[in-house]
Amino acid sequence: MPFDHNDHYHRLLLRHVPSGASTALEVGCGTGKFARSLAGAGLDVDAVDPAADVLTVAKALGSPGPGRISYRQADIRSVALEPGHYDVISCLASLHHVPFDTVAALRDALAPNGVLLVLGLAKPGSVADRARWAAAVPGNVVARALVRVAEELGGGVDALPSPPVRAATMSLAQIRREAVRLLPGSRVRVLAFGATCSRIAQPERP
Ligand SMILES: C[S@@+](CC[C@H](N)C(=O)[O-])C[C@H]1O[C@@H](n2cnc3c(N)ncnc32)[C@H](O)[C@@H]1O
């Protein structure tokens, strides 16, 4: 696979999984790469995506265990989410496919101490944003080239189908504003390679 900055951040995201977590919801799972990472970390994962072709691949690849993965072909907005259920909810490059306020339903589906992890995309909205995004380009190009060379040396790999993509619709400033409104206590970080990472931890309930 060519270098993919979403995959690059799996380890960072996994570091935010609370200890003792056992249930996860992966929103817009694509070919299931992060669902398999969560299952590998021991979580049982409900993985949702409306795209049939990528789900076929995800199902064929199964789970590495010890956690199990249950795939469902659906639009996340039509899934009835049980309040207070999931220890981890993740959206990797998928939240911008739906209106941002979809996060309210995801927030409410978090168990006490649960975390919502969003690896997001933002469109440049200011000169500073443009400078940051431009600075990320050489890193992406170099990382892609290095991964390609490593794969060629290793005999190549089979490419998986690419999940549907969509351009970012909100600027970083808009995301920060909406996160304050809908996800109080959340943190938004800008990462290298041009992605953003948001994390909200649900307070422990008495
Ligand atoms: C850019 S891909 C990212 C896939 C995967 N998370 C990854 O990191 O490789 C965005 C994914 O969101 C999915 N998606 C689009 N609309 C969705 C919706 N309404 N509900 C859930 N997933 C959706 C797409 O089908 C696609 O697989």
TrEMBL record:
<protein>
    <submittedName>
        <fullName>Methyltransferase family protein</fullName>
    </submittedName>
</protein>
<dbReference type="GO" id="GO:0032259">
    <property type="term" value="P:methylation"/>
</dbReference>
<dbReference type="InterPro" id="IPR041698">
    <property type="entry name" value="Methyltransf_25"/>
</dbReference>
<dbReference type="GO" id="GO:0008168">
    <property type="term" value="F:methyltransferase activity"/>
</dbReference>
<dbReference type="Pfam" id="PF13649">
    <property type="entry name" value="Methyltransf_25"/>
</dbReference>
<keyword id="KW-0949">S-adenosyl-L-methionine</keyword>
<keyword id="KW-0808">Transferase</keyword>
<feature type="domain" description="Methyltransferase">
    <location>
        <begin position="25"/>
        <end position="114"/>
    </location>
</feature>
<keyword id="KW-0489">Methyltransferase</keyword>
<dbReference type="InterPro" id="IPR029063">
    <property type="entry name" value="SAM-dependent_MTases_sf"/>
</dbReference>
